[in-house]
Structures are given as C-alpha cells and as structure tokens.
Amino acid sequence: MSQTLHIAKNLASRYPWVAKPFLVSAPMRVMSGPALAVAVSGAGGLGFIGPGLKTQDTLADLQEASSLISKSNLLSTAFSTISDSADRPLPIGIGFQLWNDDVEVAAKAVKEFKPCAAWLFAPRDGQKDLDSWSLEIRTASPQTQIWIQIGTLAEARELIRSSELPDVIVVQGAEAGGHGRARDSLGLMSLLPEVADAIEGTQIPLFAAGGIADGRGVAAALSLGASGAVMGTRFLAASEARISRGYQREVVRADDAAVSTVRTLLYNHLRGTFGWPEEYSPRTIINKSYLEQQEGVSFEELKKRHDESQKAGDHGWGPEGRLATYAGTSIGLIHEVKDAATIVRDVREGTAKRIAALGD
Amino acid sequence: MSQTLHIAKNLASRYPWVAKPFLVSAPMRVMSGPALAVAVSGAGGLGFIGPGLKTQDTLADLQEASSLISKSNLLSTAFSTISDSADRPLPIGIGFQLWNDDVEVAAKAVKEFKPCAAWLFAPRDGQKDLDSWSLEIRTASPQTQIWIQIGTLAEARELIRSSELPDVIVVQGAEAGGHGRARDSLGLMSLLPEVADAIEGTQIPLFAAGGIADGRGVAAALSLGASGAVMGTRFLAASEARISRGYQREVVRADDAAVSTVRTLLYNHLRGTFGWPEEYSPRTIINKSYLEQQEGVSFEELKKRHDESQKAGDHGWGPEGRLATYAGTSIGLIHEVKDAATIVRDVREGTAKRIAALGD
C-alpha cells in the first residue's frame, strides 16, 4: 500500500484542486472543447481539451480556456500553492493525436499556455514518437505533465522501458468509444490489473478509461488498481460538450452496446478521414450506413447517402441516420444530458456511496 | 441500499456456510469435478460441479461429491440450521448445458442428491428451455436454487419477464473463457451495471463471471453491482481441477489475453464437438491449430495433426501444441497452481484488503 499512498500523494501535489476520486474528462477530438474542460476542472475534476481538426485549433482552444479560467478564478485557487502566478500551469489538460498533430505547433501551444497535462495518443511510430513528443512537450513546458494512453500490455511494457517515462499512464479498455485498439483490445476487468502488475514499482499512476459512466464504474476502476477514472461518453452528454444535438440525443437514447455499437473504419472513411495507424479503429453507434454496408451497398452509394444525410442536420443521427456517432459501451448507463459539474458531482457521490456499501 | 441488504441477507440464509465476499467456482465442463467443488465449498465458497461428457456422468459426480462431503463433515456444518439431516441439501452446486444435457436424467440426479444450486446455461431454445428446465429441477428438488447464466442485456430482460424467475442471475462478460456469447458479448465494466439497472426491483442477486482471478476483480465486480463473483480460469490452476497437467501448465504460462486468446469454434470441431447453439463460441488460448488455420491449412490436415498431437500427452498443449485450451482473459493474472482452499482464502483476503484501501 505504500506505493499506492505515494502515488496518491504525488497526484494530490500535482493536481491540488482535484477532489477524490480523481475524475477526468477525456480529450475527445473537437467535442471536448474549452467550456467542457474548464467546467470539469471547476467542479474538482481534471478536464482535457481534445485535439482539434488541425493542431493550430489547439492554440485557439487553449486561449479560450485560459480566458474562461481567468474569469472563474479557477487558476489562482487551483495552484494557489505556487506563489508566482506566472509559473502557474492552467488547471486543464490538452490532448494530441500524434499521427495527425504537428509537434512543433503543439509545443508552441503548450509553451504559451502551460496546460497542467498533455495527453498523448495514437503515435504513427509507436514508442519512438511517444518519446520525441514527450521530450518536445517537456522542453516547451516543464510544468506540463505527460499522460500517455495505451490499450495493450505490450505497450505498457515498452513504455516503462523508455527513458522518457510518462507521469501518468491511461489504460483504455475494449469498452471505450471512439478510437481504440482495433484487434488487440481487452476488457478493463483483466487488462487493468495485468498492466498494474507489469508496471509495479515504477510509481506511475494508472488511470482507467472505457465503459465507465457512473460511480459503480469508478469504484470498479479503483478496485482494479487505477488511481483515477476517465470518462468520455458520459461527457458527450454534458451540456458543455461541443457536439451536435442530434449526436448527443443518440448517446442518451442508445443502450445495449453489445449489439448497438461496433468498431469499424466505415464512418471515418465516409467523413473523409484516412490515415489512422492500422492499430486503431473507432467504436460507434450503429445506424443505417453500417447496416447498409453489411447488406452489400457500395461505398460510393453509402458516401452519397451519408453526404445527403449531413444536410438533414440533427436528423442525420439516430437509428434512421447515417452520420458517425462515436461512443463507448457505457451508452446504456447514460439517460440524460446534465451540465459537466453535475456529472462530476453525481459520479463522485456515487463512487463514495458504492465504496461505503462495499465496506459494510 | 435496502435492496442490497435484503439480497445479502437472503443469500446468507440460503448458503449459510459461505463467507464474504461470496466466491464461486464455475461449473466448467468435466474440469470442475467433485474434488474441486467440495474443496471450494469447504473453504467457505460455493463450488459447482460442471456438466459431464453426458448427463449420466453427473450422477456419478454427485455421488462422489456426496461421499466426500460426508467424510468432511461439511454437510452437517453447512446446513446445521436444518434440523432434519435428510432435508439438508448438498453444499455444492451442479451445472448443466441445456442444449446438450438430458433434462430427465438431470432431474433424477438433482432429486437424488439435492445439490443446493443448479446452474443452467446455453439453452437451444432460449427462455422456453430455461423455463422448462427450471420447472423440472424445482419439482425434482425444491431445495435446489436455480442459477441462470446470461451474457447479454436482452437475455436479462427476457429472464425477468418469465414466470419461472431464477434465484440467481450470473452475468458472464466478454472476458470469460470457454463458451460465451459469440458476437454480442460485452465487457463486465458496462454489462454488469446495465443488467443491474434492468433487473432493479426484482431482488434477484447478480453474480459476475469473466476475467476475474483475484481480489481486485472481485472488489470491482462488487462495485459494479454484483453480490458475488464467479471464477473459472483461476480454478483451472487449482490442484483439485480435473485437468491434464499440460493444459494446466499452459494456463499458468500464458499472459496478455488480448493477443494470446481468441473466440473460435475450431477446437470444438477438432475435438468432434458440434451442435452448440450458434449464439456461443469458446475463448481459447491460441496454439498451432489456430495459427495454421489462419495460414490456410485445411481442416482435414489440421484434424490429422490435432489427433496426432493428442498422443503426445501433456506436450499437446502450449505454444507448440494443438489441443483445445479453453481459458479466459484472466490468464495473465494466474502465476501458479494452488489448492482450491488457498485460492479461495487468498482471493477473499485480497478482496478485503482492496476494499479497505478504497475506504482510505
């Protein structure tokens, strides 16, 4: 337990405003914007801004987050222990998709705004890219901690042999929505403890991601050896998410993810997104595009119908829709849109209740 | 919480010798024999005997378990609250594969030996078969509680609409070894809480199965809403398991289940097992038979090589082997063979430690 206590103490000193349990909103591309990240951090969690359509967008997002934070006084209270306000990092994180983001622009953004954490994901060239990004980000902003997301035991083993050790490892289970491991994913129930055993002794905290949407999942993640829990899909149904209403409505409506979601590259391709490293494939809620592909409709025809559907606005999502609806297996646990602070507080209270019940 | 307490109280009265947390050894076909089941129950868990090659074998297994139990005095201590010893059920359970087992022989066995629980799994005709089996077993032995294993939300919803409500629902996640849902399985992290919500108000306890091998997994299962945890693969590495040494050695050796296991019907077919309902497919550790199938070797040739491999005894398993090695995703958490009582005690202590740490 001394390792657990050491890790908890270290996290508390690096993220002093974060309450227990340590709750994180995932850096979902575009959808996790400044308003969501700041609201989550403001409620005692850690909010991440997701990658933008291009890395340059990250500068604008960090600028906006910075100004939201100044207005809210979150900056001074979050890092009040740092006497010189110029040295205080931003109490939000920023995410990068390594294969698609520009490291120089990223370093410039991080240097200018000093987010407290940078979340690195999906390198084109594995550990080599993770190492060079970690080095660039740390050089640009020593206050910025490096969070690295992995989805396999093999990645964990390689990561802890690196000279650029991350500050936090996020373990993404097969349950996760959006992009995750295409063929070698595994449920958190086994993956998390196996990774925990593999990195034992490194003192690096593990965060669990995938399939978690309430206090039950958070308590389970902590049981399995995580120091905190990351939620993505739950925050797609936050009022601050940068998401179309039709998409959000579908996240609330759908359930039974075993049959209503699938990992497929189809929607990437329909949206014109190509080039993801082949290790990854996104989980999405199934709609007409996928069903008709299964029936044998040609890509050209699906693309035509998809693009037509885009003009339908919010009606482009849902069982009769055709647009990408990336989401995780927790969709059946999400029944309403709430503001992010309420989500953080509800999950925090739910976790405490669950842990208290376990102790009885 | 009152529902949780009610369920816990009810379980304690039906299984009075079982300590907390409620740990169960799964009814693995043939491999969960009388010695394993009695050892688990003797250590304060609930041991299940698995289905036999044919239902008739169940009679012999129950006979043997009954005699082991008499010798150990477990019978009288387990159900000491029941004054007439003739009314005392056996403090072990028995499992049936509905599509393959004979309900009349099963009912006869249950009537003669009164196991405290019958675990029903894999009906050919869904809820209809579950209902008729439940009725037959209850008629044959009113002391025998009905445990039903499901793997999907849809099954849970159908189950609680039945007039033959089960006494316990076992929720099997995608992580499980051996036969589970072929195409619509889901990780326990999301599946268990979603099923818990779907059956809320029924007062039926949920048990979690799949990917659990130590106190971390058990604490996680309880967090997600389970009243107890079932372990299969962990007990394949029990000294009492009815398993070849080569198979057992492979369970201990293998890790990283995301890449070292797969769901495939190949090994069923190599063993001459046909006829499983199409909803199911077994998870197995990958060896040469599967790899060569992927390379395009014909079934006839694979079958020839497989049958040859059978003559190699314990060398038929392992990375160079060709024999079926059904196992779950927890293989990376299992590092040694222990006797069943030690497994039960270690997992119990591990769970208590983990829960205590959560409370800090």
TrEMBL record, chains A, B:
| Gene Ontology molecular function: any one | nitronate monooxygenase activity
SUPFAM superfamilies, A to Z: Inosine monophosphate dehydrogenase (IMPDH)
Query: Where in the sequence is the signal peptide annotated?
Result: none
- Alphabetically list the UniProt keywords: Flavoprotein, FMN, Oxidoreductase
Q: Superkingdom, according to UniProt? A: Eukaryota
Family matches, as Gene3D superfamilies? Aldolase class I
What stretches pass through the bilayer?
A: none
Protein name as annotated: Nitronate monooxygenase domain-containing protein
Species annotation: Talaromyces atroroseus
